[in-house]
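Priority: medium. Attachment 1 of 2:
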């Protein structure tokens, strides 16, 4: 991959982001995931955030993303969570019964940078294969 160039900067940043559904409920069905991917495309166009891969394991989501340094990781998580939650509740009213507190995502998240020279391909494979059986170690190790 080559750096993204804008009028004022060039960047080549990639982030692995993980966060669970509220109460760790297993609500990320194929139908919900397809809606999330569609919403992510809209977010991408509006905020210039590239969602390179999105994978789920029914109760949490993994995102591999690249975004300009004008955003912090917390900004991207906040944008993604708020917009997807609002649209998912609108598209799937039955979700409100499952999530009685009115929130779709839990408050916390995991965020890590991903280097192309180190663990890029491993993380990309891991995110793409969420919910599928794989022969990966329990926890990805950083390559040195």
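Attachment 2 of 2:
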């Amino acid at each position: 991959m080559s750096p993204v160039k804008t009028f004022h900067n060039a960047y080549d940043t990639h982030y692995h982001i993980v966060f669970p559904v509220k109460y760790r409920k297993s609500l990320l069905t194929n139908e919900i995931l397809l809606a999330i991917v569609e919403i992510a495309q809209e977010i991408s166009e509006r905020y210039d955030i590239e969602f390179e891969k999105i994978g789920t394991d029914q109760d949490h989501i993994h995102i591999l993303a690249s975004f300009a340094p004008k955003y912090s990781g917390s900004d991207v998580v906040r944008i993604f969570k708020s917009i997807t939650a609002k649209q998912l509740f609108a598209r799937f009213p039955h979700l409100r019964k499952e999530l009685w507190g009115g929130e779709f995502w839990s408050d916390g998240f995991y965020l890590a940078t991903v280097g192309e020279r180190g663990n890029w391909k491993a993380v990309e494979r891991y995110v793409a294969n969420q919910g599928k059986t794989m022969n990966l170690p329990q926890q990805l190790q950083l390559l040195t």
